[in-house]
Amino acid sequence: MFCAKMRNLVAVFCVLSYASCFQQQYFRVLPRSLRVQEGSEAVMECAVSNLAGQVQWTKDGFALGFSSVIPGYPRYTMFGERRQGVYNLRIVNVTLEDDAEYQCQVGPAQMHKVIRANASLTVISPPTSLEIVNHPHNSKLEVKEGEEVTLECQAKNAKPAAKIIWYRGNVELKGDKVSKEEVKEVESANGNPKSTRYTTVSRLHFKASSEDDYADFTCEARHEALQRDTPMRSTVQLSVLYPPGAPYIEGYAEGETVRRGQSLELVCRSRGGNPPAQLVWYKNGEQIRMAYRTSGRMSENVLSFKADASDNKARYTCEAKNIMISNTLKAEIDLTVLFSPSHVTISGPSEARVGDPVPLSCSTAPSNPAADVKWLVLGKHHKEASNRTVISPEGGWITTSNITVVVEPNRRSIVVVCHGINTQLTENVVATHTINVLYPPSAPMITGYIPGTTLAAGTVQKLSCISTGGNPLATLTWFKNDKKIHSITKTTDKSVSAEISILTNVTDNLAQYRCEATNSATEIPLFETVTLNVHFAPETVKVRVEPDELKPDVEATLFCDAASSNPPATLSWWRDGIPVQGLPMKLKKGLHGGTVSTIQLKLNITKDMNGAVYTCQAMNEALQRSVHDALALKVLFAPIFSEANSDTTVGVKNEALIITLSANANPASITYTWTKDGLPITQASYSGPSDRIIYEGNMLNMTRLSRHDAGVYTCEAVNSQGAATFNVTVSVHYPAGIKSISQNGLTNPNEDTILSCMATGNPLTAEHIRWERKNYNMHSRTITFEPRNLTSYLHIEKATREDVGNFQCIVDNGIGGETRQDIMLLVKFKPEIDNSPTLAKSASNTGQVGKLTCKCKAVPAPNFTWSKNGAKLPVNTSTKYFAEFHKVDPITYMSVLLVNDVSSSDYGNYECGVRNDLGFSTTSVKLDITSAPDQVISMTVTNVTHNSVSLKWEPGFDGGLPSWYRIRYRKIYDDSYKYEDVTPKNATTYTVSGLERNTDYVFSIMALNKIGQSKYRPDDTKTTTLTSTEASEINVVTTEYVESSDVSKSVVIYASITGAILVLVNAGLVACFVWKRRVRHLKEQAGQASKSATIEMYAPSSYNDTMTGETLSSVSEKSETYSQDDNDDRPPPPIPEVPLMPNRHMLSQTDAYLMDEQGLVIPPPLDYPPPNYAVYEGDHARTLPHPHRHKDISGHSTLGRSAGKQNYVPAPSPMPPLDGSYYNMASDRYLSYPPLIGEYLHQQQGRTPTPPQQYGAQPLPKPHLMNGGVPGGSPSHMASPPHNYGMDVSLDRQSTGGTLRRQRLDKMAVPPPDVTVLHQGNCTQHQQPLTSAPVKQPQSILKDPSRHKYGNQYGSPISSSTPQSNSSQILTVQNLTSDVPQYGTIRKENKKQNVTIDESYNKRSETHVV
Predict the structure, then answer these.
(1) Mind listing the pLDDT tens digit for each residue in 932-942?
(2) Of 165, 183, 450, 1015, which one is least surrounded by beta carbons within 10 A?
(3) pTM higher than 0.85, yes or no?
(4) Are the C-beta atoms of residues 893 and 858 closer than 8 Å to each other?
């Protein structure tokens, strides 16, 4: 109990001790209330000491959270330093909504209490605008004097409300003039009361006076958010309208005198007034000047002028007015101007005779004061004058003085002078007047023409008239027949002459020319006359005809009337340049003293005279001048069609034909109508879209001719005189066609037969029909033509099987294109079966439907039978076998055998029998499981351009599955290929594009299906691209090297000689090599018990040490050292026996070789037996014939035949190529391997084989496939070698193109897996028994429990999709590391490409054997 109390005391003591040293959290910096301007940044500080709880801010009680980034408030940020307890709140771009009460809160923690601190944020906003209502800033306000003025100023959208101050100028206005301010609330658009703003309104009231004119009234907004040095103001200027002051004139005082010509400047001014006064000057009540100028409130109009007589006693008035006064204000002055007369004027006669009194008068111009007049006559003062003074309406006075002067004899003239004198101004003006004394001239005289002389019309005749004496000299005037004419006058001191030039014409004959002389002293003119005599030709001649309307068989008279002529004109008739005799000429008196001539011509009118031109010529013999007139006869006649019109025309079907006829008629207005067979043809103006045949006038338009448009078309031409018709026969040509084609029945051999071809067309003759057939001697056959039924007959005598085939009847008449139609000539012959490779085999997996095709040619139709193993199959009578019969063409028939639910027993050879009346044929069709496709049989070039090559190929057997193709190509000297996958997949033609110009290329192809792929064809398809884009013939090169097209002849000869020498050298080397190899083979046979052997893999050559696929292909095709020609009868060297490799299976069973489509690694059969290198018979090695091996020579490894099938016997090789085949040096072949299990067990005599049922007909599971290949498929179907074979494969197998680059292999020189064409042969004579005992396999392999699951469809790389036997196989070593020998150590000896195989067992686990 005591202990318990002690513990409590200790606990209390500890708590008190902790509390004594514990400090609560508190605010080190309290938030302060802020007033910030809208749009600025606000920072509210908050710092906490001994911080333990969490800090957050609240806004009007709403918690903003503990995060520095406040959700929903993107402008709010809480920042600071937690270790220092700083939690400031920053608000950027402050708005009125941020105006609130904020609180910094620190939450509780352990023994710490909650603490809070408040601070308010007040957001102020200046006015957005300040304006005097209805008055923009710095505008003018116009009012009248005494008018009440009210100005309203608004400071808008401020917070808090702004204050408004009024100013007049710079003086603040107060008192009654300024009303009390009014504040209005402006709610925000979102309705938030915090966003409320305020508008302040203030008004100014006053009465306008003239002192307010030009005064500025300003309202200013004051607000704490506004800077004092940049106040917000709005100003309006007052313009007060009031009357101007009275005008006054400066520059002239009443009573002053001004001399004429003196310059005056009268200034009229008016002060005050708004607007300033408008000043106008008036003279005697007429406005003379309106232009005035203003300066401030003063107006001024300055009138400047020179004083003249009209200004004397003139009243000048200046008027002032503006809109504020109704009565005009005026100022006036009257001028006094002194001036002398500007001139004096003397009036009175200027001519007089001796003794005549002459009255004269002298008048002055206005003068102030009036002027005095003084006279001087012949230089003496004349005092007998009467004067008179009158007031001038222009101002001043006019003085007039009159005197009379008597003409004295012996004077030619009298000079009188008048003076006008202004005595006050002492100025004088003078005027002079001359009086001429008159005397008559002498009579005129004409010169230039001798009376009676004859002038020719058109010549120039000059006449001159002269008169002397007289005062003044005489005035001469010429007249022609009393008509005044122009003349040229020349004057001297005592005489005058007038000359005229006359271009004589018909009017001058007997014309009278008169010259008159007059002056002031003559009352009757003095004159002289002359009459001219002129010869002239007739000016015109006129031809007319009677009657006016000419028609055939009417007599007409032509009249020719010539104009007046002097002497008379001679008339004559002409037609088309040939003179025509008319009636005698008649004469009568004509104009201008001439004679008029008339002549007539009588005509009997015919229609041929229409358009004939008759000309009348009038000749003046004296002048040798003539005039002509012509008349074209217009003879009216009915239409006549031109002989140039063709009555036949030819058109082409579906083309247009236009027929145009020409007709002659008068009048030429002809109406045409067209008909066919009496039926009218539509006129163009009334035609519709469906009318093909229309006419327009003389033109017949026929569009899209048809055969039925042929016929006779009639054109009728009508005019006012009659009608005519013309017939046109239209023939329509249309393309030739074939109506029918036939044979006169089925023909027996050696009987005559006829092929007939009935044609249509226009034109159509025997030349338009021909017969063709490729590679057929048509010249020996007889061809006849029957025009009645347009049929061509081909006669074939003694028809045979060779005559069977397609004949073509070709019809072409030159219109459109030619027409062809095939007909099969049928001659009875026995069935001929198609044994092509694609039909000789069929493939189908178990459980599926097998489909075998038998195809033949026969006439008549054959019967098909199917059998197997000599037993006829129950076709169409059981559920197992069904047959379909198809007729492909007239001589080709096909039977398709369908085998339902295929089982292992259904595989094998089926016999197809075909029989008709003439014989029987059989063939064998093999049913097998599906496999990779066979190699393409052939490939050719079909077209070449500058950048592309078109290819065509013949497919091999497709393995029973849909197949597609891959093309590879390269430049002929390149080491790398490019690849392209053919599209569409089932195509047998393809164009490779993107090639270089004028470049040699080689091409090859392989076939693929989902199981695997065939080998590539050899690179024997070669061609050269063109040098330009122009089309050219195909240039296919079949040799290894392609020469340039521009190689000179000398180079060709040199190359030929060099090639011949090289061939001889190579022949010697081949013979030497063969002899040496025979010796070496004999030695190897003698030492076959040895554990190592040297086998020469590849022939030595000048090529690179790295043996690529192309190199091997070249060796197999070019090197005569390693292949035998057809004419080489020498026996091949013996095939050496290859030693056994007992340890080759002692490898890790976990290593793998095969891969399926998903890349699954599949192990090989664990109990796979060692190979037997003995030679077998059979056809299971899937290779194709070598191009150099076509001769069957017993004992040679050349192409042989056994039971109609191709076979081969491979030679062994310790180093097979990676594609599953190896190179046989004796037979020049690549062979497939490894061996079939059944074949191997059959050949092993001393060894207990694995029971065959373990390799029975169990279905192959999918994981056993490699690259989509079939079980047992050869590695030759691999798309590419494994990556660790030392090959640089830069090609994606799924791509449509690429380049396969080859590099040297460090450990082995092997060709690519898709290079060389393999060939079959028959070399059974080289078969040797296997003497070595079988080697026991490792126990771990033999007892593998999974070794039977592969069944007979073992996953080993067997080189065929069909059962194989009697073939040699070799296992492939793959996936070796760089330091592990493959089948031992590979090395070169004596610089020859020999490979030494050390078969010692290598126990490294990295080695993999299949």
Answers:
(1) 999 999 999 99
(2) 450
(3) no
(4) yes
